[in-house]
Specification:
Blueprint (H helix, E strand, L loop, with lengths): L1 H9 L11 H20 L3 H13 L1 H12 L8 H11 L6 H17 L4 H4 L4 H31 L1
Helix pairs in contact: 1-4, 2-5, 2-6, 3-5, 4-8, 5-6, 5-8, 6-8
C-alpha cells in the first residue's frame, strides 16, 4: 500500500515516469493547473494553500519511499517540483505571461540551486528532495512578486 502512495503522490500521478525531463513536465503541468483553476473555477488562495500543504506534507514521505526504491534523489520523484512551482505562483493574478515567467523562473532556480537551496538538498531523504525545491520556489516567488508589482501592471 505504501508503494502505491509513493508512486501516485511522489511521481505526481505518474508524471515522474516521463522518460525525458520529468521535473520540467511536472512543473509545467502544475503551472497550467493553477492557471486553469483560477481562470475557470475562480479558485482562490485557500485551494492553492491546500495543494501546497499536500505537496509538501505528503511529498516528503512519498519522496523518501521513491528514494528507497530508486536510489538517492530519484528523477521519478517530482512532487518536489509541484511544491516549488506552486510556491512560485501561489496567490498571484495568473495570466499567460505570469504563468510562463513563473514557470521559467522556477525551473532556472531549481536547476542552478543558489544558496541555500543546494545546502538543503543534502538533508536526509524526502526532506532534502522537497526542501531545495521549496527554496527554489521561494526565490522564483520573490521575483514574481516584483514582476506583478512593478511590471505586469504597466503592461495592461
Amino acid at each position: 500500500m505504501r508503494s502505491i502512495f509513493d508512486q501516485i503522490v511522489g511521481t505526481v500521478l505518474g508524471l515522474g515516469h516521463i522518460p525525458v525531463i520529468p521535473a520540467t513536465w511536472t512543473s509545467l503541468a502544475i503551472a497550467l493547473l493553477l492557471w486553469a483553476l483560477q481562470a475557470f473555477a475562480g479558485t482562490g488562495l485557500e485551494l492553492q494553500l491546500i495543494l501546497l500543504a499536500f505537496f509538501i506534507l505528503a511529498g516528503i514521505p512519498a519522496s523518501s519511499g521513491l528514494e528507497r526504491r530508486y536510489g538517492e534523489d530519484p528523477k521519478q520523484a517530482t512532487v518536489d517540483e509541484a511544491a516549488g512551482q506552486t510556491i512560485a505562483l501561489i496567490g498571484l493574478p495568473l495570466d499567460a505571461m505570469t504563468v510562463l515567467l513563473g514557470f521559467v523562473l522556477f525551473r532556472i532556480f531549481d536547476v542552478f540551486k543558489p544558496w541555500p537551496a543546494r545546502k538543503l538538498e543534502s538533508l536526509h531523504g524526502g526532506l532534502g528532495i522537497v526542501a531545495d525545491d521549496v527554496a527554489a520556489g521561494i526565490y522564483a516567488r520573490l521575483v514574481m512578486q516584483l514582476w506583478v508589482l512593478y511590471v505586469a501592471g504597466s503592461l495592461s
